[in-house]
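Example record used in the benchmark description.
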Amino acid sequence: MLELRPGCECCDKDLPPDAKDAKICSFECTFCAACADSKLKGICPNCGGELVSRPRRPAGKLANNPPSTTRVHNPAGCEAK
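Model output (structure tokens):
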């Protein structure tokens, strides 16, 4: 099951479970659409994988399947190379 991490690894923007602008790679590294598109050009800086839209978990499923509360913030990994 997806962790649904709570924020962008680059800018630390909040990304709640229903965020329409959350992007993830296959390892669930999580970014906002602005960082994913402009800074990262659709490529995860951690693994080199493609960043795609993160699925949204239905609100009724969140009580038994809560999102992660662990924030990963690594702005240095998002700097232009």
